[in-house]
Write a structure and sequence with these properties.
Chain lengths: 334, 226
């Protein structure tokens, strides 16, 4: 079959109204066509709801004797087909490469001579030359001394500069240390802040669990009361199941698909007394259940439940004395 | 470490916690035979009752249901908890298998209600008090509440269909007739039955979605036909 042929048959297939050969043909197509399968899956939840309703009389069914034993016998012969569990892949350690230290090259120093010998001069000029030489020598010596002095000063300046460089490096290191410490402190503050949030969440969860336990215990207590009963009412948008006992003032309510409350709103329970008087059943705090869209709550009413004829729930602002908000659902208790 | 107890815990008494269907289904996924047995205890009765309505033979109905449970045992991944409740999935699969079996067998239904259904309960509408059904072998109260709310919503949704549309759903889904048998039963053309079934299902889905019951309606996966 092709998609054009299967698509118009999806609803008919879904409710099981196809003949055997048509059903097989559609199923063969569905095995390989994700598009048509998606069309069918749109009805998945609807079909599950229909199956629940179709099985409603099943709880009154008398199963054939020995069915459980036959089931357990079959079960013992059927191994569970478990997909092979994959072993966790080990991660290879990253090889750490370290660059070889660079060879240190020795530095070489060179020195050279600067002085030569003296020639012989004529006696007349000898004195002048000697004087000139002496003067030149003295001047040279003076210059040499100045140069030596300058070199000493230079070395002192270089030493001072080196010292200052050392100081700057020291300051840089100190700055880096301070920066690292600051980052560590910021990390620690962030971690503490995260832990505080986690603790707050845990406290909130513990409060929820405590409240849940309280409601669950109240529900189990109600279940043991004589004449305990449930009533279910639904509208097109919401549902409620009321668990109550005739002589009890406590009532458990299971809410289904109720609209979410906005800031400053609450669910409020109201009851009509047998005398016709309207009575407040108080605020209903709901706790979520694992079932989708279902939550439960517990209220205490002024008199035993036999004294009331109708229960209804509205969405209100805190502190109201009479119902003024939209009504969610109503159930005649009788 | 998870220190929080899941909300929705139920208590039969102060010491015994009732495990939800979904928790048991998860244990089946871990190879826990006892968990499968508990689920069988909870739902085999109504599942066999459902299959019997469609196949008309008790032995065949038992076979259909047990094969569904055994298939779930072999392939626990066929049920995906995120897509809905276990009981809805289970009964939906039982219905599908029962229809297949009915088509294959081509027998005539001969249901003896007196013989098969016990006389101490009445019909489904009279079973509103869930506590009558609460026993060691049934699901916990929360699961029963969910099932009852679901059934009530489906009844109301069916009531919103036109009478001819509702009749097609009843004859097809609840009685297991195929479209030709329905056309014959109602004395109407096959094409009319087809379009009526299509419209009925689309409307039903729209109503249930509006009620928040078809929460996973748009879910698409590499699903397997069980």
């Amino acid at each position: 079959m092709k998609c054009q042929e299967v698509a118009p048959e999806i609803e008919i297939y879904a409710i099981g109204a196809l003949a055997e050969e048509e059903m097989s043909a559609v199923e063969n197509h569905l095995k390989t066509c994700s598009g048509c399968r998606a069309l069918l899956e749109r009805y998945e939840a609807t079909l599950e709801s229909l199956a629940l309703e179709a099985s409603a009389t099943g709880s009154l069914f008398e199963p054939p004797p020995g069915h459980k034993e036959r089931f357990l016998n079959k079960l013992s012969q059927r191994p569970q087909l478990r997909p092979g569990s994959k072993s966790a892949e080990e991660l290879a350690e990253e090889a750490r490469t370290r660059p070889a230290p660079a060879p240190v090259r020795p530095t070489k120093s060179r020195r050279g001579n600067r002085w030569g010998g003296l020639g012989r001069l004529a006696p007349a000029a000898f004195g002048v030359v000697v004087a000139l030489v002496l003067a030149l020598g003295l001047w040279t010596l003076n210059l040499q001394m100045q140069l030596d002095q300058q070199q000493v000063q230079n070395r002192t300046l270089v030493a001072q500069l080196d010292q200052q460089r050392l100081d700057v490096n020291g300051l840089k290191q100190l700055n880096e240390q301070l920066s690292t410490q600051k980052n560590e402190l910021v990390t620690q503050v962030s971690a503490i802040s995260g832990e505080r949030e986690t603790l707050k969440q845990q406290v909130s969860q513990l409060n929820d669990v405590s409240e849940q336990a309280r409601v669950s215990q109240n529900v189990s207590l109600l279940l043991t009361k004589p004449g305990a009963t449930t009533r279910t009412a639904t509208t097109s948008t919401a549902g409620v199941t009321v668990l109550m006992a005739p002589d009890e003032k406590n009532v458990a309510l299971f809410a289904h698909s109720w609209p979410s409350l906005k800031e400053g709103q609450e669910y409020h329970v109201w009851l009509y007394h047998t005398t016709g008087t309207l009575v407040s059943g108080g605020t209903l705090k709901l706790l979520p259940l694992p079932s989708p869209n279902i939550s439960e709550g517990f209220i205490s009413v002024p008199e035993p439940m036999t004294n009331y004829t109708t229960l209804f729930i509205t969405i209100e602002r805190p502190g109201v004395q009479t119902p003024s908000g939209p009504e969610l659902i109503r159930d005649a208790l009788a | 470490m998870e220190v929080r107890r899941r909300p929705g815990i139920e208590w039969r008494n102060e010491d015994t916690r009732v495990q939800s269907d979904e928790e048991l289904a998860q244990l089946v996924g871990n190879g826990d035979e006892k968990a499968l047995e508990m689920l069988y205890d909870r739902y085999s009765r109504q599942a066999i009752g459902l299959a019997y309505r469609l196949v008309g033979q008790v032995e065949l109905a038992e076979e259909v249901v047990q094969e569904t449970f055994l298939r779930f045992w072999e392939r626990p991944d066929l049920y995906q908890a995120g897509r809905g409740r276990f009981v809805g999935w289970l009964l939906s699969v039982v219905h599908h298998r029962a229809i297949n079996e009915r088509r294959r067998s081509s027998f005539r239904l001969n249901i003896s209600a007196d013989r098969v259904f016990s006389s101490d309960g009445g019909n489904a509408d009279e079973g509103v008090n869930l506590l009558n059904r609460l026993s060691d072998e049934t699901p916990g109260l929360h699961d029963l509440v969910w099932i009852e709310l679901q059934r009530d919503a489906v009844r109301q949704a069916l009531d919103q269909l036109s009478h001819p549309q509702r009749r097609v759903i009843e004859l097809a889904y609840f009685k297991g007739l195929n479209q030709r048998e329905i056309a014959q039963e109602l004395g109407e053309p096959l094409g009319t039955i087809k379009s009526r079934a299509r419209m009925a299902m689309q409307k039903l889905r729209a109503i249930l979605t509006a009620q928040g019951l078809s929460v996973n309606a748009e879910f698409v996966s590499e699903g397997e036909i069980v």
